[in-house]
Design a protein that fits this description.
The chain has about 80 residues and is α+β, with helices and mostly antiparallel strands. It contains three helices and four strands. The strands form two sheets. A two-stranded antiparallel ribbon has the order 1-2. It binds zinc ion. The site of zinc ion (ZN) has 8 residues, from loops. The site of zinc ion has 8 residues, from loops.
Amino acid sequence: MKYLFLILVVLLVIWALKRGRAANKSKPSEPAKSQAPSEMITCAHCGIHLPNDEAVSGQKGLYCSTEHRTAAQDRNPD
Ligand SMILES: [Zn+2]
């Protein structure tokens, strides 16, 4: 009974994989390229690279987090 369940799971996985491949063939869309890659910036405190839309802006520069903006003794420009 244990093995029957295992075989059923394996069959389900194979069926799901086949289904996924068929869907990919019928729909040649490229979701990765449709989104424009955001510009990479460097954190002024630790030097890590991160997307511009995730950056925290300060009066002196851009940071990876509010913690690093505070650590660099910078403040929100607003
Ligand atoms: Zn940082």
